Amino acid sequence: MKKLILVLFFPTLLFAQEKTATVAPKQTGKYDTNKFSQMYDLLATPNMFRTASGAPGPAYYQQQADYKIDIELDDKNSRLSGSEIVTYYNNSPDTLEYLWVQLDQNQAAKNSQTPLAESQRMDQVLPVGNFANKFLKEELERGFNIEFVKDAKGNPLSYTINQTMMRINLVSPMKPGEKFSFAIKWWYNINNYRVEGGRSGYELFEKDGNKLYVIAQFYPRMAVYNDVEGWQNMQFWGTGEFTLPFGNFDVNITVPADHIMEATGELTNRSEVFTPEQVKRYELAKKTYDKPVVIVTQAEAEQAEKGFSNKKKTWKFSAKNVRDFGISTSRKFILDAMAVKLSEKTVMAVSIYPKEANPFWGETATRTVAHTLKSYSAHTFDYPYPKAVSVSAEDQGMEYPMICWNYGRPDEKGFVSDRIKYGMLGVIIHEVGHNFFPMIVNSDERQWSWMDEGLNTFLEYLTETSFDPNFPATRGPAKNIVPYMKGNQKYLEPIMSNSENIYQFGANAYGKPATGLNILRETIMGRELFDHAFKTYANRWKFKHPTPEDFFRTMEDASAVDLDWFWRGWFYSTDYTDIGVKTVKQYYVSTEASKETQAMFNRRGRKISDGEPMLYLVAEDAPDFKPELKKAMDVNSVQALSDYVNKNYTAEEKNALKSPKYFYEVEFEKPGGLIMPIIVELQFEDGTSETQKFPAQIWRRNNDTAKRVFATEKKVVKIQVDPKLETADIDVENNYWPKAETVSKFDTLEKK
Ligand SMILES: [Zn+2]
Q1: Which of 161, 431, 581, 619 is the most buried (most CB within 10 A)?
Q2: What is the pLDDT of residue 2?
Q3: CA of 367 to the centre of ligand 1 (A)
Q4: Ligand 1 centroid to residue 527 C-alpha, Å
Q5: For residue 505, what is the DSSP state?
């Protein structure tokens, strides 16, 4: 069987063009700079702790820190005092000469370096109060006051405090496999977070004089020691969050007797702190799956907030395998809860809130917690803790294991605007979602904000849109990240930047990584491959400490999709996507060509021999073009073609023949540095359309332009790149052919 040769007629440009495409200078040395090169130059070398597949290796280890803590809240003076016994397990192969303990409260202390490291400028107009606070007032007493650090026998241990980090000097080094217990006693003044800021503190209700406490970073916490950083003892400057080992906690919390509380872990003395009626309601909630059951009622909360009891009560919580501990307590709390059925277990969704949050919170908060647990579990693993609590705390959005603080309350008349409504639903989903990343998939927040914020924001987006398809989700859709990505390069950093060094934190650590994952799922990998790989990452690293490499490698390992080009561009650079249509040429089928044309093809080795039937594709600007060629092709009217078909194809093949009538060559351009698939929509004159997608690898040998040929049955009237705005293309003006109408009208007017 002979092959029919369709020869492109493109006399002058065809070969020249591809050679003159601009190519970035190549790097000499070990690695080339092709955008598809594997990332040997960027990733840490795999080892016995972390494998090349992205899974924990055979020598993987992690340290453990168990805590027994007693704390007491002095509500009147907003002061917290406590003592703890920490038992630290050295599971590493290394001998430790000292231990590092985190004193995060010191970030607000008088000697904190945080405010000094900020550039300042003079405010030329100030309200008197602000002027007084800024220039006259003495700074508040904040930060930890350490009363003692002792070993298990009660002998004082020497220690050194450097800002937010305390080094405990060991008398004899801790060998691999050893454990060491020590005790610390401390106190600190709790901040009014709505005035002073902070991720914890209290909110004052001026009308009734009550405080609502959200307590965290309240105890000296072990730093992480691992195979990647050694001791992660980077200071807490305020932006980069927390890096903590797992452990078991027993915490006794003494507060005024009329407080209601929630905290990390299971309450082990419920009958001592709840009324018998409240215990009964709690038992009912454990069996109620369809709606929240009110356990502490608004009437009970309103009664309590008038009390200011002088008596005390101690609440006892026990938590297994958590990396941190949070507490929220107030006289003002209403409490409701419902049971949530996951695939293999039942857990509790809980909310606590003051009457000021009702009726909105009573109606929506706990149901949102329940939906979040189901949605996140479906994308990762069944939520392993017994409960998840959402606390109503104005101006807050902050996460701890099993408990989180969330803003969003109605106004004084009970009205909730859409902004508040979706803001509050979004923040509950986000903060409850943080249980998965980083509380369980325990990444290093001090170093990489994106590993928890980005992954969490991505699942937040999926959870919001499954909750309500019209949810006004801001972070996730590709088009929403465009204003950031096309911004001034001076204010952009790669996602792979330390949390403290980022200009536009929200877009860099939340929006861009979440959008990148969404693009991988919807446009590059497809949902099935992506979801399996993402789930593999979550399951490999739950209750462990992953690094970026572990994530990047697992996503490829579990999917067989090479994504090095994507990580390189989206995570390690500030490049942006810009792909457009450069030229569109329509070709017409001809059976004849001039002697010159034939000679040219012969010179290029096409071997046009006498008598062999040839077809020529002729563009309007070609020398051989004749007006009568300008028509749709019909196989039957091209004698040589119909002869060929009749001679070579079976009846069955003939019945199945396609009937292309129009031929186009489209040249795409890529002014943007990022690699993306080319998504092309062809719109036909009858109003129908067709979308074709060319993988990112189309750019692997030419980073500037790419050409594709389209043979269609219907006449193409419009071509559009990325019609659904799914690649974060920063300039859509070049996405169309013909160019946007406004331009052509203007041109026409100009010509007239
Ligand atoms: Zn977050």
Answers
A1: 431
A2: 46
A3: 20
A4: 24
A5: H
